[in-house]
Amino acid sequence: MNAEIATEFDTEGVQKNFMFVNRKAPYGSIYALEALEMVLISAAFEQNAVIAFIDDGVYQIVKGQDTKAAGMKNFSPTFGVIEMEKEDADEDPDIDMVWRIVVERDSMEQRGLTAEDFSIAVEVLDSAELADLMNAQDVVLSA
Amino acid sequence: MKFGVMVNEGPFTHQASDTAYRFTKAAVEGGHQVPRVFFYFDGVNNGNKLSEPQADDRNLVKLWGELAAAHGIDLVICVAAALRRGMKDEILAEGFRISGLGQLVELGLATDRTVVFGD
Amino acid sequence: MKGERKMLHTVNKSPYERNTLESCLRLAKAGSAILLIEDGVYAAIAGSAAADQVAARTDDFTFHVLGPDIEARGLADKQLIDGVAVVDYTGFVELVAEYDAVQSWL
Known about the structure:
The complex is a heterotrimer of chains A (143), B (119) and C (106).
Chain A: E1 17-22, H1 31-42, E2 48-53, H2 78-91, E3 99-104, H3 105-110, E4 123-125, H4 127-135, E5 139-142
Chain B: E1 2-7, H1 16-29, E2 33-39, H2 60-71, E3 74-78, H3 79-84, E4 96-99, H4 102-110, E5 113-117
Parallel strand pairs in B: 1-2, 1-5, 2-3, 3-4
Helix pairs in contact in B: 1-2
Chain C: E1 7-11, H1 20-27, E2 33-36, H2 51-55, E3 62-66, H3 67-72, E4 84-87, H4 89-98, E5 101-105
Parallel strand pairs in C: 1-2, 1-5, 2-3, 3-4
């Protein structure tokens, strides 16, 4: 016997805290690119979101990416769209969401990077601060 | 309790889909609900009906479809990830449907816990 | 009043292949539960090089390991690190229900 399958859920008025955990470098695998598409779509839902770059994930937002010779799609400009979504959310009182773009300091420093190396503005957090922030989330999507 | 499940890998390269399947099965058999499983990244390959595992191997494509039918689970293949990989309606296994990434956010909003399985 | 939020973290990579366990131990908040699954179960074996990493943190976290993945890998007769509890898939489901949210370290 088959059970009935609902394909629509009533989520009217539900607001949650989402975190997108990015721990993989770009280009070597598809995770960074498709995770970015996931973040972009979520903007339409006006949910609170933390976009976190940890471990090799910090390489995703390094500026100056040039994929011409490698023959792959350069998706790094799309991080600028994420930054714009965040700024819109910060400035427009009609947009009911808070977005934060965060980088773990240890991950960044281990790789010899500073915030100056990134193509977008980020909050650099100590591991303990990031641990607190992660612990406060409702939905953590990692790739 | 309601669980939302996300599967990021296909049925063969990584164990993720097996673990997600066993988790989902234990959840629904334990009296919980899993209203939706969302397949993203190479996870979209879990919905390929042309997949033919060897006779002595488990067939995850079929298992997912059967579990969904028995317990009313909405199996959603992400359209953007699917198009890239040639996963189209013509080769979609029974029990799966193709839809947008918004269905993943909705899963997060509509369930009490979201659990991701991947590589 | 709701008590302090607590999270379940899953780790599915061998500690000898990736830094996944290390990152989890660095960024999970004390009081969290950590469940080792898939290739992550290799970190639960006593007397291994990775054992110290786990054993050093049993005051901060409750450690669990997925039994079916231990058995699949031929480790059923191996001694596990003290304080690591074996769960089956039902136990996995119960952990997810018990904690407020789940972070999968992939």
